[in-house]
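Much of our argument rests on the idea that a fold can be written as discrete symbols. Part of our work consisted of pairing the sequence of a single chain with a tokenised description of its backbone. We regard such an encoding as a compact summary of how the chain folds. The amino acid sequence and the backbone structure tokens for this protein are reproduced below.
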Amino acid sequence: MDLCFEDTLKMKITFGTDYGCCFVELGKTRVMAQVSCELVAPKESRPNEGIMFFNIELSPMASPTFEQGRQSELSVKLNRQLERCLRNSKCIDTESLCVVSGEKVWQIRVDVHMLNHDGNLMDAASIAAITALCHFRRPDVGIQGDEVTVYSPEERDPIPLSIYHMPISVSFSFFQQGTYLLVDPCEREERVMDGLLMIAMNKHREICSIQSSGGIMLLKEQVMRCSKIASVKVSEITELISKALENDKKARKAGGRCGFAESMPQERITALKMDETPVEMTEVTDRANDIVQKAEAPSQTVPSPVVPVPGVGQVGQGLQNTWGLEEEDEEEENDNSGEDEEVKETKMEVEQHDKEGSKQGYYISFFNIKRNVHPKTKIQSLSNDSNVMEPQVLIISPSVCFTVIFKA
């Protein structure tokens, strides 16, 4: 049975603005790989070789089952599998990363971030990691005596890594004790599968690593069949990676735009204005006019509520709300009389005897605004302080006030 590349999940590879940043879409799985480097001291056992370090981060954004800040069993398993696939397969020349034997070597760090989990995490991680390593450029260095100088990209062109081959992982899931075989299982299929087989292979049909999980017994024929399918798929993926690297190289050489924004035009605004499109609204206008003509205007008269008891009315059984009706009553009185507002002033002299029998006079002025108030309106309280010589203003209601002037 032949396997076509169209039968597997759709894959897309894009690069970032900086060297060593790669974004891989494998079906609905999203993975981003970032490569960085620094000068460190080499290991004592291998003083002439650089150091390769891999790290896979399972973000809670990718799946609710992932916990942040805690290394799960799945992340440890993926890290080990990625190290066996890339570092133990000797796909990178680590001796070329040596700057000064026994003193300074380059440490290459590959961080793989899972952005969305829909199965095939190992496949997507291996593709993103090897593609980012091929795309990465380390700074050039110069040695003068005991001094090591690291040149910026503006001073000297960065140097790519020496990569011998591209190992890529391919996953196979088995159902019903190996009766059915499925390539590129999704997240739902991984939940119900009986076993999983991961084969890391390059385009030369060299198996770099192989791992089986799930406790299922596989026959020799099944493993050979999976290896043949993996060789076909790895060849197609390697060709796609080479084309993506070549296109990015041409775009950077031509001085064109590159990066995620250029690689994903469907998620970018390409115009600042849009042409106006005429819409025929004749029928809608006629129908709206008919509705307006047939509609009846609402009544403008509002009944005046009556409060059966004096004081402030409260909403309840047998009472009506009087808020906002005072001004309407006053406007009606002004319209009927046709006269301007009058301010009436009434003065009366009040005598009060203190304890010693002395007399003090109070001149009380009533100011009635928009309403007639009887001069004998009861006063609740007055100040008995004889030393107070300043007038005091007491407000009975929002429209009635009076002034008390103390006279010795």
Summary: Residues 21 and 243 are 16 Å apart (CA to CA). The longest helix spans residues 220-253. The helical segments are 73-86, 121-135, 187-192, 220-253, 260-263, 282-294, 326-337.
